[in-house]
Amino acid sequence: MRRILHIDMDAFFASVEQKRRPELLGRPVVIGGDGDPTKRGVVSTASYEARKFGVHSAMPLRTAHKLCPYAVFLPVDYKEYSRMSEQIKKLLGEFTPTIEHAGIDEAFFDISQITKPSDEIAKEIKKRISQETGLTCSIGIAPNKLLAKIASDMQKPDGLTIITEEDIEQRIWPLPVRKLRGVGPKNSAYLEGMGIKTIGDLASAPLNKLIERFGKSYGRYLYEASRGMNESPIITHWEPKSAGREITFQKDIYDRQLLRKILAEVTREVVNDIRRRGYKGKTVTLKVRFSDFETHTRAKTLYEPTDSLEQIRRAAFDCINRLELKKKVRLIGIRVSRLEKGSPLPSAVLDET
Predict the structure, then answer these.
(1) What whole-number distance in Å separates Cα of residue 196 and Cα of residue 210?
(2) How many domains does the chain have?
């Protein structure tokens, strides 16, 4: 029997801040941007105390401040969060080498070959993390990644949930369809329009109906996922598909020359990133969001993969020249995709001009 464990650190960024600043324990804490809720930015993580007020990740900081004006707002300290993440994942490697790092605060790993019962393994992991970091995590264990991910979210914070195939009808089917991985707000709303509100409702839908509405691939995924069927492997190594950067301006910008200057700077950061990791890219995509939130993208595919700042910057400028900039700009971003492995360049050439 396959046993997959999913570990999700509880309100990770906020918990790290509360750990190193004990005076924040028990208080609503919101992490995002540079920590100033009067500026543009989004919530990265909110403590459970803040979540009681309706604050959640990806929410604008200004909205979070309206909902919880007495919260402590702090900037993102990604360096410290990464350090803590590495410490935790090094600890997890002592249990099994078959680990998929799904993000800075979560991971999947296969415990099928460990002879101990699932609950003992989970309790030992939770104890070690608590002892070595002072943080808590929630763990889900199930026959596959799909169910393990759902399980880890069922008893947060500091939860432990074990799901078996026999539990699917009683414990999974009553959940909102939005709980299924891969079902976002748009598809969730579309499914509700079909009268499908729970995972159980989805499981009762005929396969041909789902394929007719959503296409062969996604329709079959919905059919199988609602029944708890998932054969996704644990991916211990993966190659990135793209690299990019976005900037949201504190004040909307109309000056075209200033936008080009900022675009050049962002492009340099992206090129340095792919060079540092030893990749070359073939497609350059520009993203522009105007003050009214209307968003446009333009892309240019090069003849061959490159890590040349000059070529990628020229492609980015070609993209922006194909956009009508008649309104003020709120956000600008650049992404280099279709990456291929090359060789990392020495730091001496990273900041080429």
Answers:
(1) 11
(2) 4
Span 291-349, pLDDT tens digits: 998 999 999 999 999 999 999 999 999 999 999 888 999 999 999 999 998 765 554 44
Q: How far is CA 109 from the centre of its chain?
A: 18
Q: Residue for token digits 């060079």?
A: 275
Residue 159 DSSP SS3? coil
Q: Is the dihedral of CA 42, 44, 46, 52 positive or negative?
A: positive
Q: Nearest Cα to 221, choosing from 193, 181, 191?
A: 181
To the question of pTM greater than 0.85 for the whole model, the response is: no
Domain coverage including residue 44? 13-77
Q: Which one of the listed residues 17, 49, 100, 106 is annotated catalytic?
A: 106
Residues of the chain with pLDDT under 70: 343-353
User: For this structure, is 94 an active site residue?
Assistant: no
Q: Is residue 230 part of a domain?
A: no
Kindly provide the residue ranges of all beta strands, DSSP E only, lying in the chain, ordered along the sequence.
4-9, 29-31, 45-46, 72-74, 99-103, 106-110, 137-142, 160-162, 242-253, 279-290, 295-306, 329-337, 340-341
